[in-house]
């Protein structure tokens, strides 16, 4: 076994906050060996990022390491002063961050940032050194896949896409060939296709440079794909640690088991997604005993009173009484309150109306964003181009049906969703809601219709006014549409109950809610006026898997109870596997494949769908070598200048000469309801294995 | 870039023409006949008529506006009614003193305010930061004329270490500079406090950004991070405020020039208003408006240098 490069022992980290001193990390110990990738996983608030910052000694000013040591090649990082740390950071330790959009300095060129980043390691100031630094920077950029590096290095961060920025960030981090790289959710903000590219890059660099990596993520699928060992964190403790194959093969801790169960890929076409009850406790009021006991179905009396010790269980380490000597005498299992939401009985009559009645229909809808050309420039003869965000889309959605819209960022899916609701005016084509053409009707006539078609916005927090209580937010739709409410308080309670929230939430402001709760309020507001159509934009983005599973279950229940027509917009095919009846795959403003969910998942007919399916990280490390992964090269082109012929051909592995000149129409295959826009649909391989 | 500069040039000309129209109309809004007030109670009718003619006041209002615009378009500011000298010459003599005063104050404000702000931001809640906060806020609340009087009384009258009034001996540069110190400090003092607060706030925000953590993770020295990577970001909002601030500085300069009896645009405009010498007022205000517009243009150009994300001649959405 290679030598240990980092040994963390009994680490304790506290934060000084206005609520007093909170302990974020408690007696935490782990090792990283040379060239090894160790994953740290857990829900938000479990201390993953604190660990990452602590290893770099980049904790926020109010954070403090209060006990323990971190031996990096025998040198204790906890004892190092600022100067010693600085020398280490430039050379042996490096870090990459979650959001590549904000982790590059916007006002300095890539070259300046890369040259200065090497100063700690190559401090010489002569011309020779200067050239050596530039050469190293260019070589690194080329290695991470930045095309035309000598020219691109002069550019500024905003001139790159999110995926490219993350590559540049990795290039900067690896300039000094560090022994340990700390990666804090480096792919969480990226599309699955880009995530697959970046993971591949990280794996390749590890193999090539032998860098040990501490990889923080909330996605067990990512861990399964790239990590050698994993650490599961819960409420500031490591609750389970071990080799990836062992832990995934036989997870021991109830929390690990629950996390794995709630991963959406396990539930493709299942009836309900598994969730974890409750949520991560706040550091302010941690439960006595095992921190996970209040959410644990197998917790016994002992679990609620005494903290478990760190128990080795074979090669796996588990922090759970169930594997300890006291389990037999641990008392009876403590029953936990049920969390199920009461189904709505009132609307049952409406639900019986399920039919083939088309409620949303678009015909050749196009939404283009014209460039803004200033008045004077117009006089000077400048013409603007246009971003063809939606470029000729036909869809039909029936009452009680869910259509999933999926594609990478920039595919036009959100624009299509907004155009359907006429939050954006289409450039051409028609939008028909319930048989009524709404494409050109004036706002005054549109307003009464708005009550019947609602949107759940992507960012729940910014779509709820920070200055309004939830009760006011939920009553606003009634006020706007002049609908009298007999008993406002009862109405608010009713709406909150509909989405599984208690009536206490009515008196809260947006910042007092968790991400999942805010999302639920957004849904409740959309449901207030009893709509027929609901467009949900990324309803689970940014949520922990278990919370996301709860939201998806809720959406599914509501559809059945209220007989809604749904459009669910997402970049995550996993989400659609569970909830959608049909899936439309969008690429550069066009639908490239439209089929029933089952058919699309088992036998995709467009190479883009095939690649999207293949890019989903599955929480099964045994698939790592078996599963042939298709990694799309490059990124989605600009919708300003789509490629000629089939828009997908530059990234397609099956592309032939014909694809470069002829755009394939969306046509029915096998005579059925499976549509695909590809010249060679029969070449596309099977998708996910069923189940 | 060229399109942008052309656009800004057209805008500047439009602003100046509008100011001219406004100033010409102003004569008719102010109560009393301008020529009569100008000449005083003992002037005879003949002289009044002559002066009215010299000021174009005998013509219809629309013609007055037209003539004024015609002058401005030809780069002429008009003629002083009293002396008959072209105003270009008079303004030309006063302007350099005001420019020197304003830019010296601005320089002082930046030289003192920015480091003070950086220090406060990099040592938040230290006792020096708190003292800086108190000093800054008290500086902000001191208008230039109060500060000016105070400095004058303390350093010139009580301590007698500084000259009190005037520009100093003609041609003697060190003497000129000695006479510049008190007025420049009086004018700068508000801005020192203001800039310090502004730089502190925006720098604190910048220091919280992920890219600063990324710079630290890359092992850059604190000094490099603070003074190069963070400060350039933090200066962007500061420059925006400074662009507007130059106009403020001009207004302040009027008071300071009066207090220190310095010739300059402030004194010129003040005397013009006192004597209802409207051509002088018009010329003075027009030049100040021009300076204001130019300062804003400079600030915007500085912006593009600081922030590559801003493209001035951007034609695409």
Which features does this protein show?
heterodimer, A: 691 residues, alpha/beta, Rossmann fold, 4 domains, 8-stranded mixed sheet, 24 strands, 31% helix, globular, B: 317 residues, mainly alpha, MetI-like fold, 2 domains, 12 helices
**What is the CA-atom radius of gyration of chain B, in angstroms?**
24 Å
What is the share of helical residues of chain A? 25-40%
Instruction: Identify the CATH class of the largest domain in chain A.
Output: Alpha Beta
Tally of helical segments of chain B: 12
Total count of strands of chain B: 0
The total beta strand count of chain A reads 24
User: What is the residue-mean pLDDT of chain B, rounded to a whole number?
Assistant: 81
Largest interface comes to: A-B, 49 and 30 residues
User: Briefly, what CATH class of the largest domain in chain B?
Assistant: Mainly Alpha
What order do the SSEs of chain B take from the amino end to the carboxyl end, as H and E? HHHHHHHHHHHH
Based on CA atoms alone, the radius of gyration of chain A comes out at 27 Å
Low-confidence stretches of chain A: 346-353
Distance from N terminus to C terminus of chain A (CA atoms, Å) equals 37 Å
Instruction: Write down the overall mean pLDDT of chain A.
Output: 87
Structural class of chain B: mainly alpha
Strand order of the largest sheet of chain A: 6-7-8-3-9-10-12-11
Describe the structure.
The complex is a heterodimer of chains A (691) and B (317). Chain A has 691 residues and is α/β, with parallel strands linked by helices. Chain A folds into 4 domains: 4-105 and 177-264, P-loop containing nucleotide triphosphate hydrolases (Rossmann fold, 3-Layer(aba) Sandwich), CATH 3.40.50; 106-175, no CATH class; 268-329, no CATH class; 357-452 and 531-602, P-loop containing nucleotide triphosphate hydrolases (Rossmann fold, 3-Layer(aba) Sandwich), CATH 3.40.50.300. In chain A, β19, α19 (545-562) and β20 form a beta-alpha-beta unit. Chain B has helices at 2-29, 34-39, 45-54, 61-73, 87-122, 127-140, 144-158, 173-207, 210-217, 222-259, 265-274, 278-306. Classes of the chains: A alpha/beta (691), B mainly alpha (317).
